[in-house]
Design goal:
about 230 residues, alpha+beta, Nucleotide Exchange Factor Grpe, Chain A, domain 2, disordered N terminus
Amino acid sequence: MSDTREHDDTPRPADDAPADGNGKQCGCCGESDSQDGDACCGMSPQEIDDVLSLAQTGGDVPVGAEGFAEALLTVAAQRDEHFQTLQRTLADYQNFQRRARQNERETRELASMGAVQSMIPVLDFFDMALKQDPETATAAQVMGGVEMIRTEFMRVLGNQGVSTISPAAGDEFDPLKHEAIEQTSETDVEPGRVVETRSPGYSMGERVIRPAKVVTAKDTGDAASEQGES
């Protein structure tokens, strides 16, 4: 009895076809790269470094690797150029940061110096007032000196962009600029409006430094209901 063998009709790849359909072709030698990426042109990473070193120093590269050595030189030159560009960019950025910090520090110092310089004339007025003889100075002279100092101080604040918030009686109450510290019903002012400014406020530009402390008019209906409850 003769042996029976099954015939395998499964198609097989040609001998010259790559073993892995996902293999990539090397741009240097035209051969397929290894799957693990540890070798190119049939050489290990150490052999590639040796070829590059020989090409850079003018040594004799292995026979058949001349084209690969030339490609390595081109890539190495591009790498060095990009690295130098990165170093220059990093140095420029560090210099920019240093100049920015220096400019910020100088700006703060100049701002503080300007504020101090503007206050010096006020000190001069204080010195003038203190030079008066207390034995002969009258109350009117003392008050006049205080008024001069206040006027000069307000001038200095005005030069710095500071303005006064001092609402008059009957002005509308603004919670962004005014602070109601008291309410009164004994007034002819409409309810909710300013009756009196106890302490002026101050602002610099659009920013309120201190709100004005004011007395507002109380609603007469609320006042009557409070009296009835009592």
